[in-house]
Write a structure and sequence with these properties.
The chain has twelve helices and nine strands. Strands 3-2-1-4-5-6 form a six-stranded parallel sheet, with helices on both faces. It has a three-stranded mixed sheet with strand order 7-8-9. The protein is globular and about 65 Å long. It is of the alpha/beta class and 288 residues long. 45% of the residues are buried. Helix 1 runs parallel beside helix 6, helix 8 crosses helix 10 and helix 8 crosses helix 11. This is 3-hydroxyisobutyrate dehydrogenase. One of its GO terms (molecular function) is NADP binding. Belongs to the HIBADH-related family. Keywords: NAD, Oxidoreductase.
């Protein structure tokens, strides 16, 4: 058993599973806006804290998994946020997908209090979180990476140190832009084929064993056949990440032409009643 006191903040679809995997190896402290999301972890031996600040007082490494920039700022900078209770030497590890700018801002605030920061966004979805097979890309000082790596290995299968603070978020946004474009292209191609009278099974066979094959294609085919768009990765999250990627490109004078074209199309899908469905529901766009 590793010896550091561990805290976990944010027990949504991903965070709850990741925290559970940590709890299998050592005691952990937990906090979430709604306590009921922590019930199973508490039953399993986790210690509940009523605020991020009190959890920070009791933890040496704090993992965070929240929705967006605003939620992360609130958890860290709020009146009862992590900074209000953080101790010198504490390492904050952020698994959220947020902008590199916010990452740098919060990392500096933590450093001013004697702590350190690692951005460690993940890919692999809720299944990877459940099975502890996530890919985790870490932006951190080398010593901080060495310190946290054994704990990350309890939640993921591929742990990469990709550079300094902020580089983890940069890689995640680039990767998610590619997967968003894959998803939208696969959805459009399938619907185009159906419009032309092609059989879905024939398209699945040809596309799954040819150059059109992709993770997103397989996901859409599965969801379409089952007519089940219960969110694993929601439209809201996909839209947020695509928007962040385009903003990052603009800030760094990179011409992300396909991404810029895709963003308003996906935003329109989100705004027509699909925000809380799975990202793959984009395939329903042609039904509306």
């Amino acid at each position: 058993m590793l010896s550091e006191r561990i805290g976990f903040i944010g027990l949504g679809i991903m965070g709850q599973k990741m925290a559970r995997n940590l709890l299998r190896h050592q005691p952990i402290n937990v906090y979430n806006r709604t306590k009921d999301r922590a019930a199973m972890l508490i039953q399993g031996g986790a210690t509940w804290y009523d605020s991020p600040s009190t959890l920070a007082q009791a933890s040496q490494i704090i993992f965070i998994m929240v929705t967006d920039d605003q939620a992360l700022r609130e958890v860290v900078l709020g009146d009862e946020g992590v900074l209000a209770g953080i101790q010198p030497g504490t390492l904050v590890v952020d698994h959220s997908t947020v902008s590199p700018q916010v990452t740098q801002e919060l990392a500096e605030r933590v450093r001013q209090r004697g702590g350190s920061w690692a951005d460690a966004p993940v890919t692999g979805g809720d299944i990877g979180a459940d099975q502890a097979t996530l890919t985790i890309m870490v932006g951190a000082d080398a010593r901080d990476f060495q310190r946290v790596e054994p704990y990350l290995q309890q939640m993921g299968k591929r742990i990469l140190h990709v550079g300094a603070v902020g580089q983890g978020q940069t890689l995640k946004l680039v990767s998610n832009m590619v997967s968003a474009l894959n998803l939208m292209a696969a959805a459009e191609g399938l619907q185009f084929g159906l419009h032309q009278g092609l059989d879905l099974k024939d398209m699945e066979t040809v596309m799954s064993f040819g150059s059109a094959q992709s993770y997103e294609l397989s996901k859409i085919l599965d969801r379409l056949k089952r007519d089940d768009f219960t969110p694993g990765f929601s439209v809201a999250n996909r839209l947020k990440d695509l928007r962040l990627a385009i903003e990052m490109a603009q800030q760094n004078q990179f011409s992300a032409d396909l991404g810029r074209c895709a963003l308003p199309l996906y935003q329109k899908h989100a705004e027509t009643g699909h925000m809380d469905l799975d990202e793959s529901s984009y395939v329903k766009r042609w039904d509306d």
